[in-house]
Amino acid sequence: MEDLRQTALAYYMAANEDIRHVVEEIFVEMDPNNHRQVKFKEFSAYMETIGCENMSSEEFYEELKHGGNDELEFDDIITLLYIIYSQRPFCGGKCKKFVKGMYFTCVKCFDDFDHNEGALATPTFSVCSRCFLARDFEHRHGEFLDPIVLLNLKRMEALRNRQMEVEAARSSSATSANGTMKSSTSAKVS
To answer: Where are the coiled-coil regions (predicted)?
Structure first.
């Protein structure tokens, strides 16, 4: 969790004032008695209110707490918001735990997009490294990659597609230029 915490704090420190203000507002919403700490009951109720029931457990609450604190503090809420907005997964395998480290994502689910509706057709499916290695999960697709490999693969595909577009544009303009030269040569001969 420490890597996620450091990443979240780095994003927060680099954020503009508007984003920092939103984070502060969310913290205040979670802490109605304004004692600058969020108790489990407050946390759990808030998570259920925003539709994050999978994060409302006491186990997840305990993982979020930093440095042996009894309750969540502001930095813990920054970490929580990073986890929510970066869509860090809970394992879809047997353990069902929050994935703090590396994980594997189904490539087909990641790419599945409903072009008719203009929205994601299915949520992504991810499993922790332990469940993936043990094949302790059930899923209808078989191609899984970790996010770093997946990102690099998508980048290479985009670069390849861009290169093909550039080459097609060059070829098209060369063909067009040749056609213009031929027709002007024909006009001179006549």
So the answer is: none
